Amino acid sequence: MKPVLVDTSVWVDHFRARNVALEQLLELDRVLMHPMVLGELACGTPPSRKQTLGHLQHLRQMQQANLREVLVLIETERLFGVGCGLIDLTLLASTLMTPGAELWTLDRRLGDLAHRFAVAHRPVGH
Question: Which domain of life is it from (predicted)?
């Protein structure tokens, strides 16, 4: 079973309305965390803020692409002008660097790129 980086968009959706597929991944210890996702969530108002952010910090960490690696990916794969920002492309690069990892996002543009690179996660029943 592949590990899955859960994008901020999925977490926010889960905080608004319970996401059973995400809960199943959590129970199976398949969820990966990236500091950029944690940072984005910390900028918002997750439920039970302190406890939630504390739990998220203890999820498995994935490999992290550095800025140079992200910039190389942007240039070599011509990812400029596609409507994704630096954080999204950092998450994509980190997913590509983490063996077997998939990326689950509700963001259409990032999702399109995840499909292009064959790392898109499709939750069961979706």
Answer: Bacteria
What integer is the mean pLDDT of 37-63? Answer: 97
| Domain made up of 4-116: CATH architecture | 3-Layer(aba) Sandwich (3.40)
Average pLDDT score over residue span 13-27: 96
d(CA 40, CA 85): 13
Does the model's pTM come out above 0.90? yes
Separation between Cα atoms, residue 106 and residue 13, nearest integer Å:
9
SS3 32: strand
Phi, psi of 17, deg, nearest 5: -150, 120
Please state the φ and ψ torsions of residue 102, each to the nearest 5 degrees.
Answer: -120, 160
How far is it, in rounded angstroms, from Cα 75 to Cα 65?
15
Residues near 46 by beta carbon (within 8 Å), at least 6 away in sequence:
11, 15, 52, 53
Closest CA to 114 of 17, 24, 21, 10: 10
90, 36 contact by CB (below 8 A): yes
